[in-house]
Specification:
Shape: globular
Strand order of the largest sheet: 5-4-3-2-1-14
Distance between the termini: 35 Å
Oligomer: single chain
Structural class: alpha/beta
Order of helices and strands: EHEHHEEEHEEHEHEEEEEEHH
């Protein structure tokens, strides 16, 4: 497909209440999707808000309700649906970004690599070690979660992604970083970038200002939402991106950071010892 139509779901979330959040999202999509779309994007931890109660709130493959619900929605709307939830696998808790497609194939997932230490996320969740870049309707799409946005080496587009997606619970007090880093990732990687944030106030009193946005491969804003709940639609054009990348092949001169994310070298590099990165 030459085009990809996104549905950006910027919503408020009921604190640690999965079923009300699922019902609310389902009703919003039913009311507002009046034309076909390809990819429905939800915020980080869309069933609970950004909670550290991983052991109490996690779902698993055997009894979890959200994945079957996502599969039903994907089939109903004939669109992929993607967002992160708290997930338990073999006793490890993950902030897991699930992507469910309408063709009934096995759901794909990405486990958040960079855990937000200011909230103690690393104490309650295990970090992921692999990117997810998947093909959907002829588009290569890379999926990341919130804090990952601050780490350009991890987000470096060596896989040829047409679109990068960042699902987030990004506080309003750091909105400047969010609004700056999303277009930066688009410019440096010469691909589309979509950031999906929540609105409202969570159970810890943290305010979220929305600012969900989609940028093109030059960093131009295609959609930028305010602080209110919104559903927005935007259509991306692959040919325009490919023409731009051929005309301005900056990506060919990028440094190759050959870093194993499971190694101690990666940990040292995160702490600032960039001499260990191989250019």
């Amino acid at each position: 497909m030459e085009t990809l139509r996104l549905c950006i779901c910027q919503i408020d979330l009921a604190w640690e209440q999965a079923e009300p959040n699922r019902r609310g999202i389902e009703q919003i999509l039913l009311d507002q999707i009046v034309e076909p779309c390809d990819l429905i994007l939800l915020p980080e931890m869309f069933t609970t808000g950004f909670s550290m109660r991983s052991a109490d709130l996690a779902e698993d493959a055997a009894t979890g309700l959200t994945l079957p619900w996502m599969q039903e929605l994907a089939l109903r709307h004939q669109a992929a649906i993607a967002g992160s939830i708290i997930f338990n696998e073999a006793g490890n808790y993950y902030n897991r970004f699930w992507v469910v497609t309408p063709d009934g194939s096995k759901p794909r997932h990405y486990d958040k690599r960079h855990l937000f230490r200011l909230a103690g996320e690393e104490k309650h969740y295990a970090a992921g070690h692999q990117k997810l870049v998947m093909e959907f309707r002829g588009w290569q799409i890379a999926f990341f979660i919130c804090y990952d946005l601050r780490f350009p080496v991890w987000c470096r587009n060596r896989e040829g992604a047409d679109l990068m997606v960042f699902s987030a619970n990004w506080p309003q007090k750091r909105a400047l970083a969010w609004n700056s880093l999303l277009p930066a990732r688009a410019i440096e990687n010469q691909c589309y970038v979509a950031g999906i944030n929540r609105t409202g106030c969570d159970g810890l009193g943290i305010e979220y200002g929305g600012n969900s946005a989609v940028y093109d491969f030059e960093g131009n804003v295609l959609v930028h939402l305010d602080a209110n709940p919104h559903i927005a639609f935007v259509t991306l054009e692959k040919r325009a991106k490919e023409v731009f990348r051929r005309a301005y092949p900056f990506w060919k001169d990028g440094d190759r950071f050959e870093v194993d994310p499971t190694s101690t070298i990666f940990e040292e590099a995160k702490e600032g010892n960039t001499n260990k990165l191989i250019g």
